[in-house]
């Protein structure tokens, strides 16, 4: 079936099977491999993208369900000149990553979270990111990065 | 993991969903938020040949005042339940329990109707709805009918919904903004409850229901009876596991679950009165 999704502001139309998962559509049909597949069982959040501005796990959604809608992936955050999004910048500055495998999903979940709760408490950050697992950092610097990103967005 | 192939049908109304189910028979399955169904399909534990996507049936996404009850459309997402001001004022327990389902990403997709129709005894909302004696409205080719929560959950992943029926609405009593609590015990933040205990207060009477203590969500009737007879919370909670048949799995043995039920019911009763 033909699926049209606006990905990072650009129209993407591809002929795929109905069983195509959104993450496959993004990685294989659109060639956007920034979104990662970790567990493939809805647990780890590595595949998190924004659908209509809200975080979703793209391994647990069919591309067909997003047909006609808008998706933002990690590739869609930085400005055209390479300037990082405030959330990306904060992860960089606070060293909120080690191996980086969870990072695209963490950053997208963070962008979605800060949209819903612009000034979260540390507890709200930890609860807001409960769907994203990181096997490296112990979460401490991730939480610092989210708090810093919230402060930076507030200052704007 | 890739699900088995299927034909995809998207519908935009309840009537169209019922018609699609009638046309495709028992090979068809409804797809709501997909948070339970898609994982099952990826493991190929579910292999429907037709998926009827009701994700865009907006008419079934609402929370409104129904006079003597609050009516919640089946397609209302957990996110919309957990942020509803109307529910906060009129039936706070539903809002509080919805906020504990899975994680943000799951709550952005998953629906209350899907949670109820799936019939998983480990799910949070069904127990809360059972405690509230909620009413479920089902629509099919032969019209609509109301099903009491007490008659709805029949077994593990089995409900009173007939083939071809669509759950359209969940009605909860106006139980107010106090006298409730949910104790959910799990090991990872986003997980299902190993055991959960919900307390709700309807018309001044305490109701208690348990998550994951049998093949369906269950009312802790012995606890309720003890409370009615004047027992203390601690004493009433001792009866929490009476009549239950909890599962044994990686997370917990039967004995451990029975222990958790007693502890969680006591905490839930205490918190609901705090
Ligand atoms: C990582 C993860 C963690 C989770 N954690 C929890 C948790 O802690 N607690 C919890 O309770 N749940 C949890 N869930 C499940 C979640 O609550 C689901 O949202 C819910 O169980 C199903 O709702 P859905 O809209 O996604 O339904 P779907 O998955 O689309 O459908 C589920 C079933 O119900 C049927 N169905 C759906 N809607 C209707 C309808 N209107 N009428 C008739 N049949 C219908 C479908 O055909 C299917 O058989 C979790 C899920 C994931 C992926
Ligand atoms: S890959 Fe989607 S949640 Fe882990
Ligand atoms: S940085 Fe390695 S998994 Fe998070």
Helix and strand topology:
The complex is a heterodimer of chains A (156) and B (274).
Chain A: E1 2-7, E2 10-15, H1 22-29, E3 48-51, E4 54-57, E5 70-72, H2 86-93, H3 103-116, H4 122-128, H5 140-155
Helix pairs in contact in A: 2-5
Chain B: E1 7-10, H1 14-24, E2 28-31, H2 37-42, E3 50-53, E4 63-65, E5 69-73, H3 78-82, H4 85-90, H5 92-98, H6 104-109, H7 112-118, H8 124-131, E6 135-140, E7 143-148, H9 149-152, E8 153-155, E9 158-159, E10 166-173, E11 181-185, E12 195-202, E13 205-211, E14 218-219, H10 221-228, H11 233-237, H12 254-273
Description:
- The complex is a heterodimer of chains A (156) and B (274).
- By secondary structure, chain A is an alpha+beta fold.
- Chain A folds into two domains: 2-76, Ubiquitin-like (UB roll), CATH 3.10.20; 86-155, [2Fe-2S]-binding domain (DNA polymerase, domain 1).
- Chain A has five helices and five strands, in the order ββαβββαααα.
- In chain A, a hairpin with a 2-residue loop joins strand 3 and strand 4 (54-57).
- In chain A, helix 2 (86-93) crosses helix 5.
- The model of chain A has no long low-confidence stretch (mean pLDDT 97).
- Chain B folds into three domains: 7-53, Uridine Diphospho-n-acetylenolpyruvylglucosamine Reductase, domain 2 (2-Layer Sandwich), CATH 3.30.43.10; 58-172, Uridine Diphospho-n-acetylenolpyruvylglucosamine Reductase, domain 3 (2-Layer Sandwich), CATH 3.30.465.10; 181-272, CO dehydrogenase flavoprotein, C-terminal domain (Enolase-like, domain 1, 2-Layer Sandwich), CATH 3.30.390.
- Chain B has twelve helices and 14 strands.
- In chain B, the strands form four sheets. In chain B, strands 4-5-10-6-7 form a five-stranded antiparallel β-sheet. A four-stranded antiparallel β-sheet of chain B has the order 11-12-13-14, with helices on both faces.
- In chain B, strand 13 and strand 14 (218-219) form a beta hairpin.
- In chain B, helix 5 (92-98) packs antiparallel against helix 8 (124-131).
- The longest helix of chain B has 20 residues, at 254-273.
- Classes of the chains: A alpha+beta (156), B alpha+beta (274).
- The structure holds flavin-adenine dinucleotide and FE2/S2 (inorganic) cluster (2 copies).
- One FE2/S2 (inorganic) cluster binds next to loops of chain A.
- Residues 37-40, 42-47, 57, 59 of chain A line the site of one FE2/S2 (inorganic) cluster.
């Amino acid at each position: 079936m033909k699926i049209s999704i606006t990905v990072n502001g650009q129209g993407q139309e591809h002929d795929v099977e109905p069983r195509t998962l959104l993450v496959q559509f993004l990685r294989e049909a659109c060639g956007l491999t920034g979104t990662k597949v970790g567990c493939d069982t809805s647990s780890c959040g590595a595949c998190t993208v924004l659908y209509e501005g809200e975080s979703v796990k793209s391994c647990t959604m069919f591309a067909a369900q997003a047909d006609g809608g808008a998706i933002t992936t990690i590739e869609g955050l930085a400005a055209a000149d390479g300037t990082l999004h405030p959330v990306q910048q904060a992860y960089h500055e606070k060293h909120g990553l080690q191996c980086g495998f969870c990072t695209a999903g963490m950053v997208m979940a963070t962008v979605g979270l800060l949209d819903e709760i612009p000034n979260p408490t540390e507890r709200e950050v930890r609860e807001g990111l409960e769907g994203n697992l990181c096997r490296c950092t112990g979460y401490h610097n991730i939480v610092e990065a989210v708090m810093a990103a919230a402060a930076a967005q507030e200052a704007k | 993991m890739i699900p088995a192939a299927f034909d995809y049908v998207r519908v935009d109304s309840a009537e169209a969903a019922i018609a699609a189910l009638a046309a495709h028979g028992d090979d068809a399955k409804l797809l709501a938020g997909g948070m339970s169904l898609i994982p099952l399909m990826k493991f190929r534990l579910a292999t429907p040949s037709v998926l009827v996507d009701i994700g865009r049936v907006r008419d079934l996404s609402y929370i409104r005042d129904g006079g003597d009850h609050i009516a919640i459309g089946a397609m209302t997402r957990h996110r919309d339940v957990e942020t509803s001001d109307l529910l906060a004022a009129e039936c706070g327990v539903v809002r509080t329990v919805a906020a504990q389902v899975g994680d943000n990403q799951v709550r952005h997709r998953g629906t209350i109707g899907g949670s109820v129709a799936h019939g998983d005894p480990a799910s949070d909302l069904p127990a809360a709805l059972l405690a509230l004696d909620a009413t479920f409205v089902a629509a099919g080719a032969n019209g609509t009918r109301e099903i009491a929560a007490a008659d709805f959950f029949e077994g593990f992943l089995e409900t009173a919904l007939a083939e071809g029926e669509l759950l359209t609405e969940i009605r909860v009593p106006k139980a107010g903004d106090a006298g409730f609590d949910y104790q959910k015990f799990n090991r990872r933040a986003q997980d299902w409850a190993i055991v959960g205990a919900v307390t709700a207060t309807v018309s001044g009477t305490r109701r208690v229901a348990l998550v994951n203590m049998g093949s369906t969500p269950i009312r802790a009737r012995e606890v309720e009876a003890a409370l009615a007879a004047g027992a203390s919370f601690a004493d009433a909670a001792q009866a929490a596991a009476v009549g239950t048949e909890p599962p044994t799995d990686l997370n917990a043995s039967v004995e451990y679950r029975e222990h958790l039920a007693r502890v969680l019911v006591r905490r839930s009763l205490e918190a609901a009165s705090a």
